[in-house]
Amino acid sequence: MSDVHSDCSSGVLPKGPHRLGRDAVEESQRTRMFDAIIAIVAEKGYRATTVADVIGSAKVSRRTFYEHFADKDACFSAAFSSGMNELLVEVVTATAAGGDRDQRIEGGHRALCVALAKRPALATVFLVCAPQAGADVRAKYERYLAGTVSLLRQLVSEGRKKHPELPPELSEHAARAIVGAVVSLLTSHLLTHGADRLPDLVPTLLAVVHALLLADVPPPSMQASDSSTGPSAWATSARRCRD
Q1: What is the rounded end-to-end Cα distance, in angstroms, of the chain?
Q2: Planar angle of CA 94, 35, 93, nearest 5 degrees
Q3: Does domain 22-217 match CATH 2.40.50.840?
Q4: What percent of the chain has pLDDT over 70?
Q5: Could you give the C-alpha distances from 38 to 65, 89, 94, 124, 174, in angstroms and in order?
Q6: CA–CA separation, 189 vs 4, rounded Å?
Q7: What SS3 state is found at 190?
Q8: pTM for the full model?
């Protein structure tokens, strides 16, 4: 998010008259505000972050902020989307560049760890802050995880011919268990050792992934009257975190 297409490598626009067009100016402003809110939320937490914090760090006026975003929630949601899109591009590119299933799984997990290590504030926001930052960001976070589940199931399906020991297909519950385990390990490692050490976790992540690929993970038994884990429960939980 910190790469700004302008004549100023730092991202801050030059003072006085300049030759930058309106689009370049607005891109610079948005990028600085994205970087600012991600860094501040990673440091202070979402609830403690204010618009004043963002405009002070990004070096923009309050008027400029509100020309781009309706409020803090809108700014953070847009910044989170931008950061997730960057991660997705790197992970999907690395996954597609691999050979067989195992190489593609390794490439994707290694790319994720390296990308997060290069963006420590985004790593903290993604793994720690996002689930507590309100319904909109929580929904984006869940969509990212759901996309990872789908990608993993696709990789296993494509690799069945070379790995006959695998089940005919990877169930959604098994895939969710794998993704949940990976996220939990990443979060613990981040909090214990810091973002720059996340690539050290790759061998552990791969061992867990391959172990769970061979595990028999039965789906949960569903009771017709049990609605405690439905969409309304997610919404209630998200409201509780935000309030």
Answers
A1: 29
A2: 10
A3: no
A4: 79
A5: 15, 19, 25, 9, 32
A6: 31
A7: helix
A8: 0.78
The vertex-107 CA angle with 175 and 183, nearest 5°, equals 45
Report the interhelical angle of 72-97 vs 135-158 (nearest 10°).
10
Q: Enter the tokens of residue 97.
A: 């560049």
Cα→Cα distances 78→35, 72, 75, 94, 121, Å: 11, 10, 5, 25, 15
The 8-class DSSP code of residue 125 comes to I
Q: Residue with structure tokens 């290590």?
A: 117
Amino acid in position 228: S
Can you give the pLDDT at residue 26?
87
**Which are the contacts of 172, defined by CB distance < 8 A and separation ≥ 6?**
149, 153
**Residue of 118, 102, 141, 101 whose CA lies nearest to 238:** 141
Model confidence pLDDT, tens digit, residues 111-152? 999 999 999 999 999 999 987 788 889 999 999 999 999 988
Place of tokens 């004043």: 52
Neighbours of 151 (CB within 10 A): 19
The one-character DSSP state at 127 is I
Query: For residue 171, what is the DSSP state?
Result: -
Write down the domain spans for the chain: 22-217
Contact 230, 220 (CB under 8 A): no
Which value, in Å, is the radius of gyration of the alpha carbons in the chain?
20
Helix axes 172-193, 135-158, angle to 10 degrees: 120
Q: What angle do CA 78, 37, 34 make, to 5 degrees?
A: 45
Question: Looking at residue 124, what is its pLDDT?
Answer: 96
State CA 69 to chain mean position distance. 21
Distances (CA, A) of 198 to 18, 61, 85, 194: 41, 36, 20, 7
